[in-house]
Amino acid sequence: MKVVLQNLTKIFPSRSKKAGEEVIAVNDFTLEIPDGKLIGLLGPSGCGKSTTLYMISGLQKPSGGKIFFGDDDVTDLSAENRGIGLVFQNYALYPHMTVKQNIMFPLQNLKGADKLTKEEMIDRAYYAAKLVQIDNLMERKPSELSGGQQQRVAIARALVKMPKVLLLDEPLSNLDARLRLQTREEIRRIQKETGITTIFVTHDQEEAMSISDMIVVMKLGVVQQTGKPQEIYDNPTNLFVAKFLGTPPINVFNGKVENGTLYIGNDAVLNVGDVADQDVWVGVRPEGFTPDENGGLVCNLNNIEVMGRDVSVVSTHEASVNPIVRSIINTDNKIDGSSETIKYTLKPHKVFIFNKETEERIYFEVK
Ligand code: ADP
Ligand code: MG
User: Fold this and answer.
1) What is the CATH number of the domain that holds 211?
2) Ligand found nearest the CA of 14
3) How many CB atoms lie within 10 A of CB 328?
4) Are 31 and 216 in contact (CB under 8 A)?
5) Alpha helix locations (H) across 236-327?
6) What residues make up the domain containing 51?
7) Comparing 113 with 267, which gets the higher pLDDT?
8) Whole-model pTM above 0.85?
9) What is the dihedral of CA 150, 188, 230, 165, to 10 degrees?
10) Long-range contacts from 315-323, C-beta under 8 angstroms, 24+ separation
11) Whose CA is closest to 150, among 100, 91, 201, 88?
12) What ligand has the least distance to the C-alpha of 25?
């Protein structure tokens, strides 16, 4: 099912009596989600991800804009009638019910033509349980399950009604690191197997990047950029997006452009063609540094962390915004760890420059 959001907006009234304190949780959000895709909705806490999801689910009413499922305007349709499955961060299973009863629960209230017999409900519950690989745990109570198993039950419960759209709100936050990794791959597998259009909300960029067909980056209720994970990583539209994606994060420096040359501090690092003279933010991805005796960027070498195939070089530079500059270097490059400085040339396509005030990207042509 294709999902279309058209100028979707949510304004919460101010909690105090004072005027002008309302919160614009979601501001003019427009997006077309193709049928059968997994969309990662990504941004820091408070940026409006959950509010967006709840409007799509029907649990919250938009202040403005429209929502379409396929060609149908569902903006005024109640949550029960939208055919969605919803999984929350706190999966809240019924503690007195078995896994099977928990999964079957959403089927009990189906009415009219949708009403199912007991056997049909059990079949459906097993179908959903098999998808998330918990069909061997059907007679257990939630208290007899691990966190990861409980989350699978919650996902099965969302799948049992065979939803047209699956909405997941930070579904992995309560799991430990290893389980988070495993479960996100599970979610991707289930999504591909069922072909259900899925919106996956997370504040974890790595999580979103790893499983999404497309990601949407939000900040303060406003969509910053939409695209394939790799495209956004390679081509961020502003400093916020550049900083939000990537581990280790992008290195940010105070810089300037003078006569077509980009400077980091006083170090000339790159030719940027006809960009006008100005102060800029310079972002350099960790993989954008090449150790080079003749390189223009001179950093003070702190230490070298061995990671196997690569090393992570920790250094400092007076123009760096962060306390350290981190580069990831292939071990084919021999680095003298006893040296006090390390010199780099920069890979032009790993360097982004941004307007110092607006933080919007300034594009340059590599000569
Ligand atoms: P996220 O899920 O990205 O962390 P939310 O969508 O929960 O963000 O919240 C977005 C903004 O809307 C926040 O500033 C939050 O405080 C505010 N907000 C969310 N729900 C309500 C509400 N029911 N009443 C008032 N403000 C709310
Ligand atoms: Mg949230």
Assistant:
1) 3.40.50.300
2) 1
3) 17
4) yes
5) 239-244
6) 3-240
7) 267
8) yes
9) -90
10) 315/342, 317/253, 317/264, 317/265, 318/265, 319/253, 319/254, 319/255, 319/264, 319/265, 319/267, 320/251, 320/252, 320/253, 321/252, 321/253, 321/254, 321/281, 322/251, 322/252
11) 91
12) 1
Question: Which residue has its alpha carbon closest to ligand 1 atom 2?
Answer: 50
Please indicate, yes or no, whether residues 275 and 221 belong to a single structural domain of this protein. no
The answer to whether 100 and 140 have CB atoms below 8 angstroms apart is no
Nearest to 189 by CA among 126, 132, 127: 132
Lowest mean pLDDT, pick from 4-18, 302-316, 320-334: 4-18
What confidence tier does 18 reach under pLDDT thresholds 50, 70, 90?
low
* 67 CA from centroid of ligand 1 (Å): 19
Does ligand 1 come within 6 angstroms of the Cβ of 42?
A: no
Probe ligand 1: pick from 12, 202, 203, max atoms within 8 Å of CB?
12
The one-character DSSP state at 320 is B
Q: Is the CB of 25 under 6 A from ligand 1?
A: yes
pLDDT of residue 19: 65
Asked if 254 and 265 touch (Cβ cutoff 8 Å), the reply is yes
Amino acid at 347: K
Same domain, 287 and 176: no
- Which residues contact residue 213 at a Cβ distance below 8 angstroms, ignoring those fewer than 6 apart? 37, 38, 39, 228
Q: Would you say the CB of residue 12 lies under 6 angstroms from ligand 1? A: yes
Question: Do 220 and 347 reside in the same domain of the chain?
Answer: no
C-alpha to C-alpha distance for 115 and 280, rounded to whole angstroms: 63
Question: Tell me: the pLDDT tens digits for 107-151?
Answer: 988 888 788 899 999 999 999 999 888 999 999 999 999 988 998
Instruction: Determine what percent of the chain is predicted with pLDDT higher than 90.
Output: 82
